[in-house]
Amino acid sequence: MSKPIWEGVYKSFRDAPSSGPGFSGERWIQNSLEKINAVRQDAIDEVINAMTRQNYYLVFKSAYVATILGQEREIPQDNFEEQYRLGHTCSLLFAKRDSYD
Question: Backbone phi, then psi, for 56, in 5-degree steps?
């Protein structure tokens, strides 16, 4: 098994030279959000596929909107910086295939 490319070059990440804004840079944030959205969609697809294998089918898929203090809005995600908030959660409704055949 080969060693990771960085092994033996620096004793720690602290010793490695850095350039640019790092984790607060727009490029890193945008790439991270794209990956989060892809993972989120993959997770939704995984649930749908798992339910399909159990003889269920998707009846309804929607962004979840909560009523909070009398207003319809996204679920609060104030514990995350604004650029990391995912927005609406997703509601999935399935029905057993045998029920309607």
Answer: -110, 160
